[in-house]
Amino acid sequence: MAGKIDARLAELGIELPEAAVPVANYVAYAISGNIVHVAGQLPMENGAVKYVGIVGDEVSVDDGVAAAHLCALNIIAQVKAACGGDLDRVVRVLKLNGFVNAPAGFADQPAVINGASNLMVEVFGDAGKHARSAVGMGSLPFNASVEIDAIVEIN
């Protein structure tokens, strides 16, 4: 039986991707007590990085926002896996750390990472409101435009 968060995802027309398998020597998430630490998620779709390149140069800010949204979908998929498939176990999204592949002088990192922050609030309501970092990076793995990790409290 689908829970309230699965119902909310359906209402929003969102189908979560399969939780991605790590591509190096790490785990996709680690649980300590009631805290889930989700490893950095790239804007992966169907096994490939969908948004590649430098935001504000090769990639538009709007596409950067879309990349952050896709990273957030992948985060939610990892959290769902960590919760044994039950997203109703999420108590609160505590923090997102957003990394934007950007040139020197780029200042729209907060707008880009809003693509993830907005989705967390849409899906989880007040429990999706979180602390956040949004920083520019000189490069990211696989030349991805955005990478985001998360800390989530579960019951």
Task: Characterise this structure.
- By secondary structure, the protein is an alpha+beta fold.
- The chain has one domain (4-13, 29-154): RutC-like (60s Ribosomal Protein L30, Chain: A, 2-Layer Sandwich).
- Helix content is 30%, strand content 28%.
- The chain has three helices and seven strands; from the N terminus they run αββββαβαββ.
- The protein has helices spanning 4-11, 61-82, 109-124, and strands spanning 29-32, 35-41, 44-45, 48-49, 90-101, 131-137, 146-154.
- The strands form two sheets. Strands 1-2-7-5-6 form a five-stranded mixed β-sheet. Strands 3-4 form a two-stranded antiparallel ribbon.
- Helix 2 (61-82) packs across helix 3 (109-124).
- 41% of the residues are buried.
